[in-house]
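Lecture notes, part 5. Sequence design as translation. It can be helpful to think of inverse folding as translation between two languages: the language of shapes and the language of residues. The source text, in structure tokens, appears below.
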């Protein structure tokens, strides 16, 4: 239980972003907005939602660790900050398609999510390089 609390203390915004992604992905409907007329607004939303979440994960990782990428850290960071959000995205798209009657899973949504995660990871890698250079 103590490890769980430590994790929550290190990654509060990441946890919040992930929870919001789940809620927004599984609520039955969205109200109409003036942005509905923007071409591909749904895909842009997916890209920003996952890119933002992934960026927050990287930022909190860098903030929480004095030594960025300690031994074995590269693989852990790859799994939790890149692969896990992509797998979560795929799971949510499958749940939308097969477990809800009001939402549809789409391959293009999955592609937008994956692109967002990848862009967030690129941002995180750049931020980590800057942070590492500053720390000496």
């Amino acid at each position: 239980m103590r490890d769980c609390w430590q994790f929550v203390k290190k990654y509060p915004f990441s946890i919040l972003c992930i929870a919001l992604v789940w809620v927004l992905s599984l609520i039955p409907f969205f109200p109409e907005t003036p942005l509905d007329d923007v071409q591909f607004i749904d895909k842009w939303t997916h890209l920003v939602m996952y890119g933002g979440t992934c960026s927050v994960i990287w930022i909190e990782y860098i903030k929480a660790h004095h030594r960025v990428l300690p031994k074995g850290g590269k693989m852990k960071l790859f799994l939790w900050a890149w692969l896990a959000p992509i797998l979560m995205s795929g799971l949510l798209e499958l749940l939308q398609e097969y477990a809800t009657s009001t939402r549809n899973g789409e391959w293009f949504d999955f592609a937008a999510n994956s692109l967002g995660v990848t862009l967030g990871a690129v941002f995180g890698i750049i931020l980590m390089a800057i942070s590492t250079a500053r720390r000496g």
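The translated text above is only one of many valid answers, since several sequences can fold into similar shapes. The chain has five helices and no strands.
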